[in-house]
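Running this now, will post back.
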Amino acid sequence: MRASLRAVTTPPPFQVEDLESIYREQKFQLGYKAGEAEDIETKPWLGESSNASLVEAAVTFKADILKQESHRINPEPNPTTDSHTIRATAKTAQRTRHWQRRSSLPLASPTNAFDFPPEPLLFNLIGLYFTQINIYIPLLHRPTFMTDVRNNLHLRNTTFAATLLLVCAIASRYSDAPDIVAEGMGCGWRWFNQTIEIPSSIGNHLFAQTTLYELQYFPLAVMFLEGSSAFQTCWTLIGFGFRLAQDIKVHRRAVPPKPPSVEGELYKRALWVLIYLDGQMSCSLRRTCGTDYFDIDIEPPLEVDDQFWEDPIHPFKQPHGVPSNVAFFNYVLQMNHILSVALTILYPAPKTRHHLSINSVGEESLLVDLDSSLNGYLNRIPDHLRWDPAQENQLFFDQSVALHVAYYYTQMLIHRPFIPMLRQSGSTTLPSLAICTNAARSCANIVDIQRQRNETSPAIINLGVVFTSAIILLLNMWSMRRKGEPHDITSELKHVQKCMHLVKLCEERWQLAGLLWDILAELMSVGHLPPPTKTNSGSSWPDVPTQINGMNIDPTQATQDLEMMLEMVDTLWANAPVGLDLNETPHE
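Update: finished.
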């Protein structure tokens, strides 16, 4: 017992592997241009579970294929295939407007003279927020919110004014109003900027008890910023908001228990939304979750639709047999918990791995447990949220898409470390690449069905998962290509195409979407070399096309350099034996 206690309370020693992880992260500072005069210590940290490391593997794999195929065509040394030349010739795949990071966000001067949208547009934006965002992340209560707006609370209360301005900013990305469409990726900033220095708002959180509207500010700000060049700021805002919620004990059950109330339920929703966003952002950036489910004993949000909260006869009672719109969010929270556990035990810092004695055998055992949890989760999904492309209820259909996409993303996340060529040490016989590839295909198919059904309405909640799916599919495609095995490359490209369609659909309003599309377009350019000669099996590989259904994927048509992305190439696979494939384990 004493030894165990000492192991827990004594900081683990530093491990050499930490330096390797930090070095890899430094080589991929997503969104920063080469030569930018900024210290590396001030740039955002991206770790092993972030998409940066996955892109790093894809870029390295691509460079290796180019070199092998060039040698197959011409055994003489070819200077155009060395790593430096590959980086130099890939400098055109970056479109400035999607990659440029603002040195500082424009700040609004403190004032109470807020510039709200004119009334017809104001109510249109509010409606868009509740139909496009609140159905997934139920932060606000529509009847209460609309009552406050109609009573002009935003003209008297600066913190509610900030809430309303953020709702308008978020919803503007879905609006077809001509003046908003003309703003493109700049839409919403005119309202967001007004909230940055509101008197008695963010700064005074440190010196006064947090109010409901102040607490709602943080998840709303994150929802707007996560699609911009300032996405790394979201993690900090989430942590700030969660600490403020803890300060007023929102995370603890009331003692003695109290009957439900509108204000109490809204506080609870704000806390759970922060927890959800923390899991998502921590996974994207591979930073430690600031929230811990084991420290929270408050009940999940009530599965009662907004219109039944203040029913005069049965308040806060969902009619029997009527599925609640909020059930989706509670099931996503369960998935989020599995995600946070996976981050902790499968993507630990090297010294944590050493301290907890996590080895390859233990990891596989943990993976089995996580897989079991995932299967149990899938079996518990209620009927109205099960995947059914013929689901007539549009809201339940969209929620079902997001729920299953989240499931497949979690499946990919927990199996990614067990793809042999992505493993730092040890071998495995687990079919993790096949599992990840099947999950990626399922994601591509589901979001494409939704895209066709919803036409031009983008489901931004699925953007990050779709990007991950596309990279997994490309890795699998290149794996088969390098081995020279017969493979239906056209079918695989169609799945990648489905992913790129969604990303393309979002890029005019979400800056991050354009950045992700540029990365995928560059990775697709692996086919610009002539096809290799026939393999021993007699099969040959076609070129990857430079266009897919009219979408240009030729990096030579882009506008700026991609050097920061291609600086990632020399670490993840450096110790792998020559010719080792993703499907092969080191001992084979």
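The beta strands are 547-548, 551-552. More later if anyone needs it.
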